Amino acid sequence: MAANFDPKVLRKHILHMASVGDSVHIGCAFSLVEIVSVLYGKILKYNPENPKDPSRDYMVLSKGHGVMALYACLREIGWLAGEHFDNYFSDGSLLHGLGEARIPGIEVTAGSLGHGLPIAVGLAYGIKRLKENRNVYCIIGDGEMNEGTIWESLLFAGHHRLGNLAVIVDANGFQAMGDVNEIMSIEPISRKFRSFGFRALECDGHNSPAIERCLQEVGKNNSPLAIITRTVKGKGVSFMENNNQWHYLRLNKELLEKSLQEVANA
Amino acid sequence: MRRVLSKLLTEEAIKNEKFLVLSGDHGYAFFDEIRKVKPDQFVNVGMIEQAMVGIASGLTDLGFSTIVYGLSSFIPLRVLEQIKLDVCYKNLPIRFIGDAAGLVYSTLGSSHQCGEDIACLRSLPNISIFSPGDPEELRICFTEMMKSDGASYLRVGKSDNPVVNYSPLSSAIPYITHKGNRNICFVSTGTMLGIAHDLSKQFNASHVSIMKIRPLEESLIFLLRGFDFLCFFEEHGRTGGLTSAVCELFIDNQVPLPRIEHFCLQQKFAKNCGSHQFALSEHGISDRQLRENLSEILNNY
């Protein structure tokens, strides 16, 4: 069956696995659904038969807490079987609650934040050295930008003019314990990126055509690209949206039904 | 030793165009040769040690053969989590060089001294640890490290220690540098090679040098089990280093431990400034203290 990266389908997968596994981090995954939907549906070069295809573009999820959105895409491609969603978090099951590089299609072990972007930068630098025509897309969170390694990596990417790199910021305005700008002011994100030698674009992170237009800009010049996607944590389910408790809250049967209905009717 | 290492890195760069040396702005004249001969294969990433490990991980994923160089206070200590998650988890063949291990930078103080690196790395999965003591040990360790298909760490200590090996070694397995007549064996790693070898001759003990601490050669047990008394020498902290590794090997093989003396760094920071020998004396392991202590211990043994 052809992969279907419709955000509705992806959110349904996320709700299913979160419910089965009694998992947290639903809000974190929902904010980046349209981003991964566009990436896998329209942008990334990958081989459905081989997640390790040496000619692939790299998709690096640095914000490991959103991994359920990535799992949903990998299921649609066929790299993950439905059974791994049906037994999420059960004893002996395959998938953890944060990204791990042993899973087909997951390039980095993330969740300890600030790990993915340095690796993505290393990949982009290596690809540039090899003069290959491949891009590296890395999703980071705005909260994750607290981490020092993010800034180390941006310095390196700007200095080496890694035009094959796109850093996509899932800017949902929240981190684990509250509002990003109350805990550690991060704005203006675009200006910060520009001062590090990036091109910086902004878009509505739930507007798929807008995301796609921004992503089409990768590689158009020698500067690395930053795309600040303005997103809503918990997007798609009204009682989760901008409610940071859904970083940690879990679904019960009633909430699951309500969520599935809202997602279906979106 | 650093001259030998510099040459080995340059030779490797000449052999393999995908061989890259990354440094976090450390090394100064050490990299002159590779920078002259293969400038594109030396990358000073800047003082971004944590990101440097991630960058190496990405490069290695693409098929580059990557050395990550730094002072041992930073590589591996500062970047331990990056080594764990970005390298060991993926079992990538990245080679780390931790220079100036132990108390080499005696005059710079605690920020540049490191007696914890072996212990830290021994607690992680999927990484080998080499700790050579003279140029020949360094050469064979480097050779084996480059052949290894997993991550490895090369601990480089003070570089002007006495040379023990004047002929080539064939492998990095533990070996006897001196065979004494008493039922006592000195066991050393890294920078303690020269002094332990010297002392073994003075006290008519045997001496075994261990340059590959992890994985530890199982046959070591047969080399050591016949001795009644083992004296360990390491410029590393009491916990988690050579002595811990060897004792664990005895335990794992259900072999009773003999009497043990352990000459090592204590778990404390430098108090005063001074020479390398002075710094060692704060831990009771300067050459003079070792001689005196061993005289007292062994003359009554």
Describe this structure in words.
The complex is a heterodimer of chains A (266) and B (301). With 266 residues, chain A is an alpha/beta fold. In chain A, α1 runs antiparallel to α11 (253-265). Chain A has a single domain (7-265), classed as Rossmann fold (3-Layer(aba) Sandwich), CATH 3.40.50.970. The mean pLDDT of chain A is 97. Helix content of chain A is 39%, strand content 12%. Chain B is an alpha/beta fold. Chain B folds into 2 domains: 2-155, 3-Layer(aba) Sandwich (Rossmann fold), CATH 3.40.50.970; 175-299, 3-Layer(aba) Sandwich (Rossmann fold), CATH 3.40.50.920. Chain B contains 12 helices and 12 strands. Chain B has a 7-stranded mixed beta sheet with strand order 2-1-3-4-6-5-10, with helices on both faces. In chain B, strands 7-9-8-11-12 form a 5-stranded mixed beta sheet. Chain B is globular and about 60 Å long. Classes of the chains: A alpha/beta (266), B alpha/beta (301). The A-B interface holds A 100-102, 107-109, 112, 114-127, 129-130, 148-149, 152-153, 155-156, 159 and B 45-46, 48, 50-59, 61-62, 64, 81-82, 85-86, 89-90.
Would you kindly provide a brief summary of this structure?
The complex is a heterodimer of chains A (266) and B (301). Chain A is 39% helix and 12% strand.
Main attributes of the structure:
heterodimer; A: about 270 residues; alpha/beta; Rossmann fold; 5-stranded parallel beta sheet; two-stranded antiparallel ribbon; 11 helices; B: about 300 residues; 2 domains; 5-stranded mixed beta sheet; about 20% strand; globular
Strand order of the largest sheet of chain B: 2-1-3-4-6-5-10
Tally of DSSP helical segments of chain B: 12
Shape of chain A: globular
| Low-pLDDT ranges of chain B | none
* Biggest chain pair interface: A-B, 30 and 22 residues
Radius of gyration of chain B: 19 Å
Sequence-ordered SSE layout with sheet pairings:
The complex is a heterodimer of chains A (266) and B (301).
Chain A: H1 7-21, H2 26-30, H3 33-43, E1 58-61, H4 67-77, H5 83-86, H6 116-130, E2 136-141, H7 148-159, E3 165-171, E4 174-175, E5 178-179, H8 180-183, H9 189-195, E6 199-204, H10 208-215, E7 225-230, H11 253-265
Parallel strand pairs in A: 1-2, 2-3, 3-7, 6-7
Antiparallel strand pairs in A: 4-5
Helix pairs in contact in A: 1-4, 1-11, 3-10, 6-7
Chain B: H1 2-15, E1 19-23, H2 32-37, E2 42-44, H3 49-61, E3 65-71, H4 73-78, H5 80-88, E4 95-99, H6 117-122, E5 127-130, H7 135-147, E6 151-155, E7 175-178, E8 184-188, H8 193-202, E9 206-209, E10 212-214, H9 220-224, E11 229-237, H10 242-252, E12 259-265, H11 276-281, H12 287-299
Parallel strand pairs in B: 1-2, 1-3, 3-4, 4-6, 5-6, 8-9, 8-11, 11-12
Antiparallel strand pairs in B: 5-10, 7-9
